[in-house]
Amino acid sequence: MSDYLITRALVGGKWITGRGGTFPVTDPATEEEIARVANCTVEDVTAAVVVVVVTGAGVVTGAEVVTVVVVTGAGVVTVVVVTGAGVVTVVVVTGAGVVTVVVVTGAGVVTVVVVTGAGVVTVVVVTGAGVVTVVVVTRAGVVTVVVVTGAGVVTVVVVTGAGVVTVVVVTGAGVVTVVVVTVVVEKAAAAAYEGWRRLGVKERAAILFKVRDCLLQEKETIAIILSRENGKPLGEATGEVGFAASFFEWFAEESRRQYGDTIPSPAPSKRLITVRQPVGVAALITPWNFPIGMIARKVAAALAAGCTCVVKPAEDTPLTALLFAKACERAGVPAGVLNVVPCSRERVQEVGAALCASPSVQVLSFTGSTAVGKWLYSRCGPTVKKLALELGGDAPFIVFPSADLTRAVEGAMASKFRNTGQTCVSANRIFVHESIHDEFVSRFVSAMDDELKVGSGLQKGINQGPIINQRQFDRLVKIVNDSVSTGAKMVRGGLSLGGLFYAPTLLTGVTMDMPVATEEIFGPVAAIIPFQKEEEVIRLANTTDKGLAGYFYSNDVSQVWRVAEALEVGMVGVNEPMVSTCEAPFGGFKQSGVGKEGSRHGLDEFSHLKYICFGI
Fold first, then answer.
1. What angle, rounded to 10 degrees, do the helices at 370-379 and 348-357 form?
2. Nearest to residue 277, comparing CAs of 306, 248, 309?
3. Which pLDDT band holds residue 116 (cuts at 50, 70, 90)?
């Protein structure tokens, strides 16, 4: 299934194929890549049969004609003809209906024509003057023109049937100019916008309910792909699909409650009202750690408000996003209302810049790192878009002396090790009062030893999967090693378990200047910091430029109110580690973002408040 989905995208209601995705084909392609693209096994490629026919039983004739025929087990036939006039013709026919013709003349002109069974035609012309022209035309209406001159200037123009025009100019002086006109947004999402926004809210809600039903019906299938792609334990993956479905139910209901106001007029000759209207096309950039939950939270709100969407899923988890798109398609979401465009890691910045620059995109919603959020924020300035940013967290988790230690340990385990610690609301710094510090650590160690099982997410009993990729793994190792080298005590873990698996780790003796306390960990590493007074721990908890979530355990009612109000975060869990739900607003303070997702406030990011004044 992954090979089928990996190079596909949903644009304007049409599924298109192309190179790229998580595993882009390299130039030259490896045998494994060839096998995947040709839908044959590696053994088929390796065991290819080559037959060479040279005229005159191995002797080149007077006419100097040489013919070479290559036949592979995959049904590929290659014919090469060389004439004495210096003309070389190569014809390649594959079992998939691909025909390639290459003609080289003595004048230094090379012409290559490729025709595929899918109706793709590629023409390459190289002249002796050093000018190369490449034209690619697909049956879907995609035209690519590449011109390379002897002066070292390269011009690439790509026009797709969905109306995407990309122009890239590279000069010999090393100057690169990229102009991307993403009319995929204008022609697909924008074209569908008028019809969708004018659809009655009852009809829109009915479609959202159907999306909920499709997600729940396919929960097990989606969860398996999610677990294989993300590494998340299957139980958590299944729960995430249910979490995603809940947003479609919630916003289907909320779409019928986008109320305006009647405002008492200061003048008897006027009547004042406000109404809610959709913003327009929404660009949604989503993360890998909740690859269907975060898409659903954004898409459900946008569709309920009357917006159309272009989703750019994380490059680590495109398959889950495409399965989500399939579910929406089956539920009856009209063509062009939801568009999903995965891309490789190398093209992330290009695609992000295009969405920011497009005048047709009226709102951009992003979940991810603070650094990327700031970059997107700056790029949206020229077009003055609405922005909804859910960025990094650095959550404090505080245990006061009056806390129920059993519940506090359970809460810390759930908050720290859910999704192998790879959540933006994970407990990043665990502050424990010095009077109960040793007892808490002892119980926490026992819980880690008894409960945490590392392995493949598809295996029964596993609750700790791998780190998402090598870059994140190396970053996690460095944070731990640097903290230990500056005095932190390794109580548990700190070991690589092979591949991208990292042992759940507990560090004590942590101080506020160590990397484990100053950086968002995003992994299965718990850092415990002792404190003495309430005022002290509030100050330490707020000593960060982020403020997404915070947690504390206390049975002192007065203290609960004081601390809940004092923490500079957008969400507070009091004696409770699981704060995310579709009914409540999700979002942070400071550099953890702007705007709210979920709840009735989630519609605000995708709608305008319009004031209308009537003269009577």
1. 40
2. 306
3. low
* Residue 214 falls in the annotated catalytic set: no
Please give the Cα distance from 475 to 492 (Å, whole number).
19
d(CA 492, CA 508): 10
Q: Say how many CA atoms lie within 13 Å of 435 toward its Cβ.
A: 8
Task: Give tens-digit pLDDT for 390-404.
Answer: 999 999 999 999 999
How confident is residue 82, by pLDDT bands cut at 50, 70 and 90?
low
Distance (Å) of CA 509 to CA 403, 430, 475, 529: 21, 11, 21, 6
**Residue 339 CA, distance from chain mean position:** 14
Does 568 qualify as catalytic in the annotation? no
Residue from 307, 309, 424, 582 carrying the catalytic annotation: 424
Q: Which one of the listed residues 229, 236, 390, 605 is annotated catalytic?
A: 390
Tokens at 343, concatenated? 């891309």
**Interhelix angle for 293-305 vs 234-254, to 10°?**
10
| Paired tokens of 269 | 């000759």
pLDDT at 46 over 60: no
How many angstroms separate the CA atoms of 253 and 600, rounded? 10
- Cross-sheet strand order for the sheet of 132-137: 49-51, 66-71, 77-82, 88-93, 99-104, 110-115, 121-126, 132-137, 143-148, 154-159, 164-170, 176-182
Compute CA distances 7 → 1, 114, 135, 307, 340, whole Å. Answer: 11, 20, 21, 27, 12
How many helices (H) and strands (E) the chain has is answered by: 19, 32
Torsion, Cα of 28, 33, 39, 44 (10° steps):
80
Give dist(CA 473, CA 522) in Å, integer: 10
The predicted-structure confidence for 240-255, as pLDDT tens digits, reads as follows 999 999 999 999 999 9
Tokens of 139: 């049956």
- Residue 118: its H or E element: none
Instruction: Tell me which H or E stretch contains 346.
Output: none
* Cβ(333)–Cβ(231) below 8 Å: no
Q: Cα–Cα–Cα angle for 108, 109, 114, nearest 5°?
A: 140
